[in-house]
Design goal:
The protein has 199 residues and is of the alpha+beta class. It is built from four helices and eight strands. The strands form three sheets. A four-stranded antiparallel beta sheet has the order 5-6-8-7. The chain starts with 19 loop residues before the first strand and ends in a 5-residue tail after the last helix.
């Protein structure tokens, strides 16, 4: 994130509390699904990952993990993706994702009917509302083609940005749809309250 020009949070081995780092390369690594990476802060910790057994008919079985062997095609696909994008490609993707997320979350913060949950720093954010039913908001956004993830405790919606949302006009459309649907739901809620309905 620092290379992309954003405030960086120390969440790697520079932080004394971090002992392992895992990443699903199919998410923001843009690799085929089915590969993950785990890094260990020391060789001693890594030693616990290996799996060996002699208690089966085939004799001694050793694997770098309890899940056993992995198909080489997805590993090759992940490696190819890393080489294709390169460091500069991932830095550019980070810049585009965070810029887009900031655009969307700034619009949500500016909407008096909505409230961000937490302080998003990367590409995932969530929001709630004390004025409208966010689950109804989700249903209406879904009918417009948006797929947000419902949350509970508190009721809210989560959105994980991908490069699709960084395309021109996409984030603007999401912001406009959220604003329009929220405004309509607030008006409906106020009309029901005016009639004495329990909302």
């Amino acid at each position: 994130m620092a290379e992309a020009g954003f405030a960086d949070h120390v969440v790697d081995f520079r932080n004394r509390g971090v002992t392992t780092i895992s990443a699903d390369t199919h998410k923001y690594g843009y690799a085929p699904k089915g590969t993950s990476v785990i890094l260990y802060g020391s060789k001693e910790l890594r030693a616990y990952q290996f799996f060996t057994t002699a208690e089966w008919p085939g004799g001694i079985y050793c694997s770098p993990g309890a899940s056993g062997s992995k198909a080489g095609n997805v590993i090759a696909g992940a490696w190819a993706s890393l080489l294709h994008h390169g460091r500069s490609g991932y830095v550019d993707a980070c810049r585009r994702l965070i810029t887009t997320r900031k655009f969307i979350t700034d619009a949500i913060e500016a909407n008096p009917s909505l409230e961000l949950l937490g302080t998003p720093t990367a590409s995932v954010f969530a929001f709630t509302s004390s004025e409208i039913d966010v689950y109804v908001l989700n249903d209406q956004l879904k009918s417009r083609g948006w797929m947000l993830t419902p949350l509970q405790f508190p009721a809210g919606l989560q959105f994980s940005l991908t490069m699709l949302q960084t395309s021109p006009g996409v984030a603007e459309k999401l912001v406009a749809d959220i604003k329009e649907v929220t405004s309509n739901l607030k008006a409906e809620t106020e009309a029901r309250r005016a009639k004495g309905e329990n909302v």
